Amino acid sequence: MTPDAAGADRPAADRPAHGADRPTAGGDRPAHGADRFVYDGYRLDPERSRLTCRYAVGGHRFVERFTFDPGGDWEAAAADAAARLVYLLAGVSYYKTFAPPVVDLGDLATTAAERRFLRTFYVEGLGEFGFRNGLDLSGLVVTGPDLDHRDPAPYQPAGGGRPLVPFGGGIDSVVTVEEVRGRHPEASLFVVSRAGDRFDAVEAAAAVTGLPVVRAEREIDPAVLRSAALGFLNGHVPVTGVLSAVAVMAAVLGGHDAVVMSNERSASAPTVVAEGRAVNHQWSKGLAFESGFGDLVAGSLKGGPAYFSLLRPCSELWVAARFAGLAEYHGAFRSCNRAFTIDRERRLDRWCGTCDKCCFIDLVLAPFLAPSALGAIFGGGEPLADAGLTDRFRSLAGTGRDPKPFECVGDLDECRAAVVLAAGRPDRAGNAVLEALLGDLDRAGARPTEASAETLLGPSGPHRIPDDFRPEDVPAAVPAGGPADPATSR
């Protein structure tokens, strides 16, 4: 979900003009009419439990606010360190309006490693944005005052066993909550929403958990919501990265010892490879971001909170198999994007039953739930019962003319395995969509055996899960390294 709304704020402080001798990149002229994106400062307001971030580009100034639950030590160095992380990552929503060749951190001193991470976050996290807008961001330069070494701010959690679980109401976060609460009964959910607005799809599933909810409100500058009218560039941003930083700040203010994400293995897989470059709609849900941001948090805050994904080594099939057994959530969860439309008048209070997300959720649950159960979840008719949606399922399985959708869906191996496992159920005999997909896979020589499909039910691969959180069937593993920088930062 992407909360966005904003109100007015004090004007950003005037800054000295930047000289022409500052570095440029990405061509002979500024991109889209601007030569640099400037970080213009952030401010903590303890009385209102608010963080205000300011940015400037192309003659425009943008203000974004984050308001947290009351309480916490806003004067502590840890609060400022966490706010700096939010400030660094939230800028991506405003950079995209002009996508200039230089990101200027203004007066904010950073280490070379921090600038490398931020540059990677922009270049890789905006991969889909660049792909769709025909922009090459590989020449991006991040510049600002250099800090030789950062001493992390001391942080002391209010007690062990108080993890914060960012919660979106889908199968991934539900499974994470149920895995975490068994060992850490004092866990809390974390939900971000627009100011004055809440998503019913999140609230309904959150209520089923019975856990306390820590909240934050995000107010995006209203000018960004008028991008088309103002002539700004627009497109997908790595919002999970931004919300991860907000979750860390909420954790620090609330004394939590961990931020537990729900991003599974296939989130690291590219959506498309264009001219030899991987473009991943889910980049900030992938392992590269998790590793890089986790290291950034550890280098900024001494003593926690830990940042990791509980589902990192797990497939979507692993998640679906566990969710299938959580019947209490079957009538409450929702992953359909139309449940999260910003305009409340257009927001659905049910599954649409036809979009890519609806089709994927139906497909990945089909090996584990009867058609009647899925029909009830989708309000009377599951997508797999509609032969008119066959081409949409083909795009998920990679057997049709349309490419994999730019959505948070599983990879081709997971979708193909789901087809085989679902088709093997007696209550799925004669399903027209599954039969068509099996025929496609046979003709392409890409049909997995049932045995090979079942291997995806077991966790594998690198992760950063601490032992006291690790699910029983997940082996200990050496964490992978952080993200490779696409080019040298300056």
Walk me through what this model shows.
The chain is of the alpha/beta class and about 500 residues long. Helix content is about 35%, strand content about 15%. The chain has helices at about 75-90, 90-95, 110-125, 125-135, 170-185, 200-210, 225-230, 240-255, 285-300, 315-325, 355-365, 370-375, 390-395, 410-425, 430-445, 450-455; strands at about 35-45, 50-55, 60-70, 100-105, 140-145, 155, 165, 190-195, 215-220, 260, 270-275, 275-280, 300, 305-310. An eight-stranded mixed β-sheet has the order 5-4-1-2-3-9-8-7. A two-stranded parallel ribbon has the order 6-13. It has a two-stranded parallel ribbon with strand order 10-14. A hairpin with a 2-residue loop joins strand 2 (about 50-55) and strand 3. Helix 14 crosses helix 15.
Brief digest:
By secondary structure, the chain is α/β, with parallel strands linked by helices.
Helix-strand layout with pairing:
Blueprint: E1 37-45, E2 50-57, E3 60-68, H1 77-90, H2 92-95, E4 102-104, H3 112-125, H4 127-133, E5 141-143, E6 153-154, E7 164-166, H5 171-183, E8 188-194, H6 200-209, E9 213-219, H7 227-230, H8 239-254, E10 258-261, E11 272-274, E12 277-279, H9 287-300, E13 301-302, E14 306-309, H10 316-324, H11 356-365, H12 371-377, H13 390-397, H14 412-423, H15 432-444, H16 450-454
Parallel strand pairs: 1-4, 4-5, 6-13, 7-8, 8-9, 10-14
Antiparallel strand pairs: 1-2, 2-3, 3-9, 11-12
Helix pairs in contact: 1-8, 5-10, 11-14, 13-15, 14-15
